Description:
The protein has helices at about 5-15, 50-55, 85-90; strands at about 35-40, 60-65, 70-75, 95-100, 115-120. The protein is an alpha+beta fold. The protein has a domain at about 35-120: Alpha-Beta Plaits, CATH 3.30.70.3270. It has a 3-stranded antiparallel β-sheet, with no helix packed on it. A two-stranded antiparallel ribbon has the order 1-4. A hairpin with a 2-residue loop joins strand 2 and strand 3 (about 70-75). One iron/sulfur cluster binds near residues 45, 50, 92, 93 and 95.
Amino acid sequence: MKFPYLKEAVKSLFSKPSTENFPKEVKEAPEGYRGKIVFHPDKCVNCGMCIRVCAPGAITRTIEKVEDGDKVTFQFYLGQCTFCQLCQDFCPRKAIELTKEYLMIAENEEDLMVRGTFIKKAPPKPPVPPVQPKPVAQNDQPKEENK
Ligand code: SF4
Ligand code: SF4
């Protein structure tokens, strides 16, 4: 009686598994991997370019008036994102970064939201020019009465 796989089975008993020991050992993603988005609100200038290039509409922005300017909030919904990286490539301030993070386990929509808020200060108001006294027209001069 022949056991064609016996040699292979015995060998496998004493060798390491060929599968990865995940999640005990989490491997780093390769260079250039496009994973979870990180937004740096301190670098953003609110130009809106990222919103324009995002085909699936995964980026939204809300603007709220506050005392010293606008409170701007950017929201990236990773459930809608295709990780194309266009937003990162087109951002003139490098405010968006696609990281190597690939573990994005979500229990609800909120777990897939990346947000960042900053205050865009209103430009200083130009000084109000002093009010010039209105020139008095010649005809408006009080006429001397003939005595
Ligand atoms: S990676 Fe692509 S799909 Fe995702 S937010 Fe950026 S532009 Fe949109
Ligand atoms: S492209 Fe960059 S700087 Fe412009 S709004 Fe988007 S994140 Fe901000």
